Amino acid sequence: MPAFQSPVLLPEKGEWVRVYVGAYDDRAEARATLDDLMSRGVVEDGSVRDTPLPFLLGVFATSL
After folding, report:
1. How is 6-27 classified by DSSP, letter by letter?
2. pTM of the prediction?
3. How does strand 3-10 pair with strand 14-21?
4. Helix (H) or strand (E) holding 4
5. Cβ contact 20:6 at 8 Å
6. Is 37 in contact with 43 (CB distance < 8 Å)?
7. Are 51 and 20 in contact (CB under 8 A)?
8. Contact 17, 7 (CB under 8 A)
9. What φ, ψ does residue 16 adopt, rounded to 5°?
10. How many Cβ atoms sit within 10 Å of the Cβ of residue 30?
11. pLDDT in tens, the chain (64 residues)
12. pLDDT at residue number 49
């Protein structure tokens, strides 16, 4: 599934990396995906957030 990451500076916690996954028609669909990822151990924790003005720049292969 398409994903991207964005560093964010959190007060008193330092720099963290937020990972954004997919695009969904509603919160219930997004929550179901997060629950699935958590139940399979892909992620330990997460939250569903509204992101204003999202857009897809493209899908690119990961360079390792």
Report:
1. EEEEETTTEEEEEEEE---SSH
2. 0.66
3. antiparallel
4. strand 3-10
5. yes
6. yes
7. yes
8. yes
9. -120, 170
10. 19
11. 778 888 899 999 999 988 888 888 899 999 999 999 999 999 888 999 887 766 667 777 777 6
12. 86
